[in-house]
From TrEMBL:
This is Formate hydrogenlyase subunit 7-like protein. GO terms for molecular function: 4 iron, 4 sulfur cluster binding; lyase activity; metal ion binding. Its cofactor is [4Fe-4S] cluster. Pfam families: Oxidored_q6. The keyword Lyase applies. It comes from Saccharolobus shibatae.
Amino acid sequence: MKNWWFIRGLRKGVMTEKYPKEIAEWSTEIQGEGNVNCPTNAIEDGKWIKERCVFCRRCYPSYKPNFNPRIYTVKKTEPIFRKSFYLYPIDSGTCGGCNMELKLISSPEYDMTRFGIFFTNTPRHADALVVMGVITEKMKEVLKKAYEAMPQPKVVILLGACAISGGIIGEGVPLEAVVEIPGCPPNPFTILEALTKVKGK
């Protein structure tokens, strides 16, 4: 992605993008038809199942991305978080991709703080637990303790196909999620918009 937003920001004082001009196509909704050999069964009976897709492109050219990045699911909103929304990220076993994309939403290009979204380094101050990666046996107790330490109201956000469905190598996280953000990894814009939806915006 060409960072023209940065140069424009220096010249005109505009620091963030209202809407990204370029979005990675293989992190958007996929459409097509026919049967394909999908390693995660993300395509069944000609239907794309976003929660399972790792965007490996084995379905191409029968299936192609349509550049719609709004592939998240938000089951409910919490208006109490409108002024501030604190996230506690926890890696239960990732390749690092989801971590990098989540970190990007704090960059000047996306600037999550303008929406009142912040990171916190303790679950005791968190409104949302952001879980990335497949679940591993040793992380089950860690996740449980982190969730129990959070004050009410609290939400669980599953970030990436691994956390939601287990991806290729494991099992999904066994927590009831308010937000599911598919992708391998998800696009920063998709992550940021899903988070603002939780806040009721």
